[in-house]
Amino acid sequence: MGVMEQFNLAQRVVIVTGGSKGLGREMALGLAEAGARVAVVSRTRSLIEQTAAEIVGQGGEAIAVPADMTREEEVESMTAEVAKAYGRIDVLFNNAGIGGSKRSVDLTVADWEHLMNTNARSVFLACRAVGRVMIRQRQGKIINIGSILGHGALPNSLHYGASKAAVHHMTKTLALEWARFNIQVNCIVPGWFLTEMTKDQQEGENETFLLGKIPFRRFGRPNEIVGLAVYLASGASDYMTGQTLFLDGGYAIS
Ligand SMILES: NC(=O)c1ccc[n+]([C@@H]2O[C@H](COP(=O)([O-])OP(=O)(O)OC[C@H]3O[C@@H](n4cnc5c(N)ncnc54)[C@H](OP(=O)(O)O)[C@@H]3O)[C@@H](O)[C@H]2O)c1
Q1: Sign (positive/negative) of CA torsion 228, 234, 238, 242?
Q2: Residues 44, 22: Cα–Cα separation, whole Å
């Protein structure tokens, strides 16, 4: 097989959670451009319909499937709907997530549960639902979106860091369990990207502090995640599993 052919996603059925904006939206558009049929998922129907319409407008194939990824029944019905629409599910991007910055002593149990449910439980629920389909197929790829804050610590991000460390760990456990079913499970670990989630970090003292820690001295542009996303969704990554791949302008090196 030629090298460009290895990256071809033609006919692959890909779910992107959190596809209404930010990194998820960019990945949905990029994966579709590489040939994938994309199910765009988030809670906001109007925005995922917009992403799907943009894909279709560019000659691609996409559907919008609303779901709150913290809710077991909605994750199950979203999975069933995609499997019914396309007959299979080849790739799952667990990208939906929220940020959070608060002093650890001020965190409430509600803060903790909301963040852990959105960033970590959602990944468990989606992997379990879609994993069952992939195990039946004896084929699949799961790409989780972790964070540099799940690797190295930053004050005031206890719940966020813990949720992403859980995502990094789930990546390894599932990779081990499901290798025998020909399912690859990997994790993209973004650094600081210019999205709504990081808007408070993109100005003032926070920005100066972070730019000082990023060797490239700039935040990532959202479309800079697309190349790695296509690689991990494609046949080019068939021998890679259980990995956490840093995409962070060098932030985590030191
Ligand atoms: N931006 C960065 O610098 C950065 C760095 C490291 C890691 N990350 C990770 O990258 C992922 C995407 O972040 P982003 O920066 O693109 O954030 P964003 O622009 O705020 O987008 C977050 C996405 O998650 C969706 N979402 C949130 N809660 C959801 C739920 N309960 N069910 C379904 N969808 C939900 C949102 O859609 P709705 O509101 O429509 O549901 C939205 O599409 C997150 O997991 C984040 O932790 C980002």
Answers
A1: positive
A2: 13
CATH of the domain at 39: 3.40.50.720
Q: Is 160 a catalytic residue?
A: yes
Mutate to test the pocket of ligand 1, among 16, 43, 73 (most ligand atoms within 8 A of CB): 43
| Domain ranges, residue 121 | 3-245
> Which ligand 1 atom minimizes the distance to the CA of 119?
45
Question: How many domains does one find in the chain?
Answer: 1
* Closest alpha carbon to 171 in 240, 120, 242: 242
Return the residue matching tokens 């972790």: 146
Beta strand 37-42 pairing with 91-94? unpaired
Q: What is the pLDDT along the chain (254 residues), one digit of tens a residue?
A: 899 999 999 999 999 999 999 999 999 999 999 999 999 999 999 999 999 999 999 999 999 999 999 999 999 999 999 999 999 999 999 999 999 999 999 999 999 999 999 999 999 999 999 999 999 999 999 999 999 999 999 999 999 999 999 999 999 999 999 999 999 999 999 999 999 999 999 999 999 999 999 999 999 999 999 999 999 999 999 999 999 999 999 999 98
Q: 171 to each of 94, 106, 183, how far by Cα in Å?
A: 11, 30, 11
CB count, 10 Å around CB of 155? 9
Rounded Cα gap, residues 246 and 54, in angstroms: 29
- Selected catalytic residue, list 86, 160, 231, 251: 160
**Is 130 a domain residue?**
yes
